Amino acid sequence: AFSDSEESKLRQLLGDLELGDQKPSHLWRRMKDLANGRMPDDVLRSLWLQRLPLSARTVLASSKEAIDSMIVMADRIVEIAHPSHNVHAVNAVPSEFSRLVAAVEALTAKVERLEVSALQVNQPGRSRSRSRSRFDPTLPPSVEGWCVYHSYFKDKAHRCVAPCSYKKSN
């Protein structure tokens, strides 16, 4: 018969204990302490493997290495496969940068549309009754290699957006 504290330790060992944020080596030591020599190492090894992430389990499951070697390997695998939270913070910077670039591009397109609208309004002698299509800088250029401004305005373009291969005619 087990005492209450031994039964509690056994319950923890068989079900409640998890890897969490700790290293596999720390989990092994905790499990070894809870077993207190009452459980064979091969059974303890099997319970320990079940609590490891899939990446570590996959590599270690068929290993014939001694448990000490497996523990070192498990620590390395988990460290490589599951980097710390600090690495995730570094990865957040490029996505924030990408979001800002997209916002700047959207604002640039709006400003270009406003400039074109202002040009069209300020052109004297233009009849409003013409059914000429309006310039939209968000549309793709009609001539490959030319920017949207040169595709629409040709020699009269006041702006150019790289890359553009338009050459002014003489």
From TrEMBL:
<protein>
    <submittedName>
        <fullName>Uncharacterized protein</fullName>
    </submittedName>
</protein>
